[in-house]
Structure formats: structure tokens, C-alpha cells
């Protein structure tokens, strides 16, 4: 039976050694040691630069919002995504990095405990093999709280007019 395993991230111009190991009820067997050397310049640097896109926030309430982004180009290597957010374009808040994103992958983060009726700036970021790219700045506004709801009927209007 054949098998494979993908390794990432790997350092450029580095030799890696490996061998297969199989275990069953009769014991353990070891394959021959093999090696490979990664390229001097990673192909993702020589061909395509990574790119991330900030998408509009969704599911906005008085105190919550969902930030959305998509990896437009990964440069051929899986990477990590996150968001920066805050009251200004200085942001001041970073969400945790989410690993394992590649070209075309959408990602999101739900923010909670936000101030009501407030505007927030945010942008998506993507990090791959030492490169960090940012999407464009976007803004969302949390909702203002709704006051008490008053039901007005024709009967109430007639009573008020009679006064």
C-alpha cells in the first residue's frame, strides 16, 4: 500500500531526511532513509505574491459582528489568516491567527461585546512563509438599541382624540 504526507512550511535550501515506518502485530519495519533538498528561492516568491481580500462585515447587531475575508492568492503555500480591527485605521486589536488557508478559502471571525452604535474599522490579513499582506480597510457600524415598542391601534387613536 502506498501513502504520502505533505509537509509545510519548509525552509528554502534545506535538506530534509525521512523514512517510512510500518507497524503491525508482528512488529515494526523501517524503510530506507531518503532525502530531498528544497529550492534556493521558494517558488511562491518567484512566481506569485500572496493576496487577501477584506469582505463586508455581516450578522451585525448592537454588540456583535462577523468579519469576513478570502485568500485571493496564496503563492502556492498554505498560510494563516486573521483580522485587525478597532475604532480607527490604527486598529489596535488582532484576532488570533487561523492556520491552514489557501487560495480561494474564505474565513471569518465573530466579534462580541462591542459598543452599541459605534463605527469600527477592520481589515483581513494573510501570512505565508514570512510574508504578511493586508486587505483593504472596511467599516461597519453596530446597531443602536431599540427603545420600548408602543402598539398604536385605531381604538387608542379614537380614545386620544376624544380627550
Walkthrough of the structure:
Strands 7, 8, 9, 11, 12 and 13 form a 6-stranded antiparallel beta sheet that branches. It contains 2 helices and 13 strands. The longest helix is centred in the last third of the chain and has 9 residues, at 154-162. It has helices spanning 43-47, 154-162, and strands spanning 15-18, 21-24, 27-30, 34-37, 51-58, 65-73, 79-86, 93-94, 98-101, 106-111, 119-128, 131-134, 138-141. It has a domain at 46-141: Immunoglobulin-like, CATH 2.60.40.10. The chain is 9% helix and 44% strand. By secondary structure, the chain is mainly beta. The model has no long low-confidence stretch (mean pLDDT 88). This is Fibronectin type-III domain-containing protein. It comes from marine sediment metagenome. InterPro entries: FN3_dom, FN3_sf, Ig-like_fold.
